[in-house]
Amino acid sequence: MPKKPTPKPRFVFTEADKKRRKNIFIQLYRFIVLGLHFWKLSRMSH
Amino acid sequence: MAKIVIVGAGFAGHYAALVGADALKRKGQHEITVISRVPKFTYIPSLVWVGVAQMEAEETQFDLKPVYDKMKINYIHGTVTEVHPDEQYVVAELPNGEKQQVDYDFVLIATGPYLNFAATPGLGPENGYTQSICTPPHATKAASEYLELVKRLEKGDKAKIVIGTGHGLATCQGAAFEYICNVHNDLVDRGLRDKVEIMWLSNEPRLGDFGIDGLEAKMGSLIYTSEMMAEALFDEYDIKWEIRSHVRKVEDGKIYTVNLDGEEKEFDFDFAMLIPPFKAQPIKWIDKDGNDITEKMCNPAGFVKVDANYGKPYEELDGPDWPKKYQNPIYKNVFAAGIAFAPPGPLSQPGKAPDGTPIGPTPPRTGYTAELSGKAAILNIIDMIEGKEPSHTASMAETPGLCVASMKNHWITGEAATIAIYPVARNYEKYPEYGRDLDLCVAEIGLAGSWFKALLHYAFLYKLQAKPGWKLIP
């Protein structure tokens, strides 16, 4: 039976996190990094 | 000459047909026939955008027949109602009501799910009060109801929206998560968000479980979980949540639930989108003496048993128990893939309310996972045609789950959660600490995810129409 989750300090997105999520240059970089990661994982499974 | 029949043309069945036709084209006169009750392929992950009226259903679809003509695959528009594994034929009911017998040497069952709205009284867009985004007509109706609500909000009304799962054993929480985020952001863009209370209602044992027992990813020195991500996001979006819950029934404007602690609750709503539980498409399995052997071939929900270790309790299930070759243990020329195969158990921890009501997500086996299982099954069939033992594997405990959960679709202001897990089913034998390789797991929100989601839409629709270079797209 799953235990009821115990209350704990919540993780929150900081203002810096929120800006990073929308910063087009950081996101272009992440797009390339995550794209390569997805490609690698997909090749592992084919 | 071998005859292969593929039942269903979703991610598993359709992709298997393409891979099979391509692999067999230089291997003699073999025949692949796809039988599908719907003459179009639907890219289901994009239906979330149809449900918020940001995309037409037709943009997620293409006709199967021209693709199959190009790939020299036979196509029958019909619904398979019976499989006769001893005599090796299936019975398909055609749209005009006639029945057609189709012989096979090998059969791959890849029917996808039957949406079991009837499991919860009042659930669903046809005979109930809630919406769904599981099929193009459902998503189109959800969009129309959503736009009606928007009109009321524009006139100054206030409203309550509930989105999540409509039964204790439902799956595909990820689709509902995408929908709730898209609805939130659409209302923000329309300047109406302050007029609406939005609630997440689900059967997950903890927030961010998504039916895959959640996920962990490294963020510097921090182990970041999907629970942390979902909590932070819902706090940011001002979305309340009610989890660990089974929906007992739905009435006009009211949802009745019971949770794992036995608390019975009622929630008012003006608009609700609740994912139904899945069961198998109704297919009878009949032996040579005319006996119904469905119970022998399938699990209680009707999903076809394959090479998994069935019957273990959740606590003892581990990676090696998940099927690898998708081959039925009784009839070796019968395979099942995608939603249609019977999993050995849930990925998420199951539970029961004090009255015995089961509450816990059933395992998702859609999208990329479905494709991989379909591909492994058809390649194993080809192995057998060539007189070899099946050698291709795609166990959910050895393959990745790749998912991009849209939150807002826009090239500049969009957001999505990019999620990668390896493997999908926790494999403690191989990864003793978390059951997964955290160096390969990712959970990240940002604009890049929105680009991925859009790119995947076009890339998959291109690949699955077998256009030039389709095999290069993973």
Give the key terms:
heterodimer; A: 46 residues; mainly alpha; B: 474 residues; alpha/beta; FAD/NAD(P)-binding domain; four-stranded mixed beta sheet; globular
Secondary structure topology:
The complex is a heterodimer of chains A (46) and B (474).
Chain A: H1 15-22, H2 24-45
Chain B: E1 3-7, H1 11-24, E2 31-36, E3 40-42, H2 47-50, E4 61-63, H3 64-71, E5 74-77, E6 79-84, E7 89-93, E8 99-103, E9 106-109, E10 113-115, H4 136-154, E11 159-165, H5 173-189, E12 196-201, E13 216-219, E14 222-225, H6 226-237, E15 239-242, E16 245-251, E17 254-259, E18 264-268, E19 271-275, E20 278-280, E21 284-285, H7 294-297, E22 334-336, E23 351-352, E24 358-359, H8 367-385, E25 401-408, E26 415-421, E27 442-446, H9 447-463
Parallel strand pairs in B: 1-2, 1-9, 2-5, 6-21, 9-22, 11-12, 11-19, 12-15
Antiparallel strand pairs in B: 3-4, 6-7, 7-8, 10-20, 13-14, 16-17, 17-18, 23-24, 25-26, 26-27
Helix pairs in contact in B: 1-8
Q: What features would you describe in this structure?
A:
The complex is a heterodimer of chains A (46) and B (474). Chain A has 46 residues and is mostly helical. Chain A is 65% helix and 0% strand. Chain A contains 2 helices and no strands. Chain A is flat. The N and C termini of chain A lie far apart (36 Å). In chain B, a hairpin with a 4-residue loop joins strand 6 and strand 7. Classes of the chains: A mainly alpha (46), B alpha/beta (474). Chain A binds chain B through residues 1-2, 4-5, 10-13, 18, 20-24, 26-28, 30-31, 34-35, 37-39, 41-46, and chain B through 205-207, 224, 227-229, 231-233, 235-236, 244, 260-261, 349-352, 360, 368, 372, 375, 394, 399-400, 402, 412-413, 415, 418, 420, 422, 440, 442, 444-449, 451-452, 474.
